[in-house]
């Protein structure tokens, strides 16, 4: 299966992070979900939650694979409690060019540790 921009799973940097081929600073892992610190943080806490399975973006969520989205949000709640993100946090998923998705493997940014603004840019 190919992701957006013709990128294959074997070339996907987040698939390589899941396999350990590319190192990451892990926050959370279970059977279906992996989470790690973003290497270009946009807030004092910036974590990426991804499915271990390659899904290119929110546009590729369907009946067959959508249970992993629930798994990811359960994982976010666990990690937020463990990291004491009591003041709140923001969950963001950029999908496609206009939203500036730069990695074509579904991911949810969790940003915390500072006051946010709304609407986002
Ligand atoms: P997006 O632009 O929404 O697709 O988000 C992709 C995110 O992945 C960006 O915030 C990048 O900083 C982050 N990122 C890219 N490569 C790595 C990596 N090897 N380790 C950690 N974060 C990464």
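^ Assign residues to that structure.
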């Amino acid at each position: 299966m190919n992701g957006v921009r013709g990128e294959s799973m074997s070339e996907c940097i987040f698939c390589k992070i899941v396999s350990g081929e590319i190192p990451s600073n892990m926050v959370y892992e279970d059977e279906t979900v992996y989470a790690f610190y973003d290497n270009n943080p946009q807030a004092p806490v910036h974590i990426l939650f991804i499915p271990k399975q390659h899904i290119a973006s929110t546009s590729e969520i369907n009946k067959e694979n959508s249970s992993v989205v629930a798994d990811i949000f359960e994982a976010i709640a666990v990690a937020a409690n463990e990291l004491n993100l009591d003041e709140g946090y923001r969950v963001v998923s950029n999908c496609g060019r206009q939203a500036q998705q730069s990695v074509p493997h579904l991911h949810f940014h969790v940003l915390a540790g500072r006051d946010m603004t709304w609407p986002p840019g």
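The first strand starts at residue 26 and ends at 29.
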